[in-house]
Design goal:
- InterPro entries: RWDD2A-B_C (IPR059181).
- By secondary structure, the protein is α+β, with helices and mostly antiparallel strands.
- The chain contains four helices and five strands.
- It has a five-stranded mixed β-sheet.
- β2 and β3 form a beta hairpin.
- The longest helix has 13 residues.
- The chain starts with a strand and ends with a helix.
Length: 119
């Protein structure tokens, strides 16, 4: 089964109520989600089945985050690093450096930098 991923940018992620909603959605759609929360910018990465990623992105859109940008639409993961299915659920990090390190470990750092307009 091909794994898909998507990347979302927002102004910030601070609402604990919204994060709880995203945590439930990650479990419901059996997706792995990584959030950079607590400040500007807010970054969200989602990985899973095509339907799961699309549904999770739709859930984020419904929460009406300020400056919501779908930086990278759901697409098949193209990486030299073998992709394993991670446990569904949501993980939060506080720093962009932590988020970047997580993208590096997954072999999608170049994709992430391009989607974030860093390269």
């Amino acid at each position: 089964m091909a794994l898909f991923h998507a990347l979302i940018r927002t102004h910030h992620i601070t609402s604990r109520k919204k994060v709880a909603h995203l945590r439930k959605a990650a479990d419901r759609y059996k997706c792995y989600a990584l959030l950079r929360s607590g400040g500007c910018p807010g970054i969200m990465y989602c990985k899973g089945s095509e339907d799961g990623v699309r549904e999770w992105v739709a859930t984020v859109q419904k929460l009406r985050y300020k400056d919501f940008q779908l930086a990278s639409r759901p697409a098949v993961i193209e990486s030299d690093v073998p992709q394993s299915e991670e446990q569904p659920g949501l993980v939060e990090v506080k720093a962009i450096q932590e988020f970047a390190a997580a993208m590096e470990r997954r072999g999608v750092a170049a994709w992430w930098r391009q989607a974030m307009n860093f390269s």
